[in-house]
Design a protein that fits this description.
This protein is mainly beta. It is built from one helix and eight strands; from the N terminus they run H-E-E-E-E-E-E-E-E. The protein has an eight-stranded antiparallel barrel with strand order 1-2-3-4-5-6-7-8.
Length: about 190
């Protein structure tokens, strides 16, 4: 009799756990998931119409490939920075550029997309070494497939080497490595 009670108790605990993990239609519910992607890739100026504050500096179009919890990923970032200001967050021998606006799309291995906006950030540019560090924070706004309805906070850090830079229309291109970190919250 005691074994029968133990078996029934275990069955009820397992049944309860399964029910907690499903919605009212019996579909499995996802829990929050960490997303950490190490990436590398290139950047070039975006079209001139991405200069939303008319300062002669269009946004940068950055395309990266990386590896994370959801397999191989492609990351596209479009972000615009204002004209340089005296360094507040950067070393004194750097130029500091504050973020105007930005957005990102991540495509994971199975084709699902994660979309978001970049809400704040700055870039520290060393004109002698032609290197920059970018620190950005943003939010996940939606997604497709497994990411439908997703939200969460993101942090993006990027180290770039400039192949060329000119003052004309803010043209710059080069390569970058970096890290994308987020906790994805599912509905």
């Amino acid at each position: 009799m005691r074994i029968q009670v133990i078996i029934q108790s275990v069955f009820l605990v397992v049944l309860f756990a399964v029910q907690l993990g499903c919605d009212s239609d019996g579909n499995a519910q996802q829990v929050n998931s960490e997303l950490n992607i190490l990436f590398s890739g290139t950047f070039v100026p975006a079209p001139a119409n991405t200069d939303t504050i008319d300062d002669g500096r269009p946004a940068s179009l950055r395309t990266y490939q990386g590896q994370g919890e959801f397999g191989n990923s492609n990351i596209t970032i479009l972000d615009e920075f204002a004209q340089p200001i005296p360094p507040a967050n950067c070393p004194l021998d750097n130029l500091e550029f504050d973020l105007v606006q930005g957005s990102f799309v991540i495509r994971v291995n199975n084709g699902d997309l994660l979309l978001g906006t970049i809400e704040s950030g700055f870039s520290c540019f060393d004109p002698v070494a032609r290197r920059s560090e970018i620190f950005e924070e943003g939010i996940i706004t939606d997604g497709t497939g497994q990411f439908a309805g997703a939200s969460g906070v993101v942090e993006i850090s990027t180290n770039s080497i400039f192949q060329n830079t000119t003052a004309v229309d803010g043209f710059a291109s080069g390569g970058s490595t970096g890290e994308f970190n987020s906790t994805i919250e599912f509905p």
